[in-house]
Write a structure and sequence with these properties.
Layout: E1 7-9, E2 12-17, E3 58-59, E4 74-75, H1 94-97, E5 104-106, E6 129-131, H2 169-199
Antiparallel strand pairs: 1-2, 3-4, 5-6
Length: 203
């Protein structure tokens, strides 16, 4: 490192890097490993060039790589920022961001990743999450519609259920009994009314 903060790449005295070119996500020196051919494993810190190794302000895409092809890592401010920056979306996953107080709802089931139908599905129709303000708003925003009928939102409610009109069995039986009695009572009234009309008919 010289007096201005510039440093050389290891083994390459001609390649001089400024402070802004170090830990910015773009490899300037020779990397230790680059995916080629069949060897396409996810890269780790030690695989990067010396100028991008173990940068405290950068974060790895653990399962993939950044969407910006020239980058090998993302800035730590890009984690859980409502914008997907990793190819496999792990920077915004529920595992990573679910314990934070974020105003978002994670869709329960994503679209299939293969098949003829998948090619016509965009991220707009298959989001990983939606803002809380879009939950139960009468419009399907998640691919599976889970934002309009979340599985775990009615577990402690005896009246509402995702699969039944009424969750509590006792209340459900009472409603059925009242319905049967109501139908029976109406049939009796109709029968008696018809009998009365029949007897009072004029010849």
């Amino acid at each position: 490192i010289n007096e201005f903060g510039y440093r050389h790449c290891p083994g390459d005295q001609k390649n001089l890097l400024s402070p802004d070119e170090i830990c910015n996500g773009v490899e300037r020196c020779k990397p230790n490993f680059s995916p080629t051919g069949k060897n396409t494993r996810v890269r780790t810190w030690t695989d990067f060039s010396a100028d991008e190794q173990f940068c405290p302000t950068r974060a790895l895409c653990e399962k993939s790589r950044p969407r910006q092809l020239e980058k090998v890592s993302i800035h730590i401010s890009q984690i859980c920022d409502d914008r997907i920056d990793c190819v496999e979306e792990e920077d915004e996953s529920e595992d990573k961001c679910g314990n934070q107080d974020l105003a978002r709802f994670y869709c329960e089931t994503r679209a299939p990743k293969e098949g003829a139908a998948f090619s016509s599905i965009t991220s707009l129709h298959d989001p990983m999450f939606v803002p809380h303000r879009l939950v139960l708003d009468g419009k399907k925003d998640c691919y599976d519609g889970s934002d309009e009928c979340p599985t775990n939102w009615f577990n402690d409610n005896n009246f509402s259920s995702r699969f039944r009109l009424i969750e509590a069995s006792v209340l459900s039986i009472l409603i059925w009994m009242m319905s049967v009695l109501a139908i029976g009572g109406n049939l009796i009234v109709i029968t008696l009314t018809l009998c009365t009309l029949w007897k009072s008919r004029r010849y």
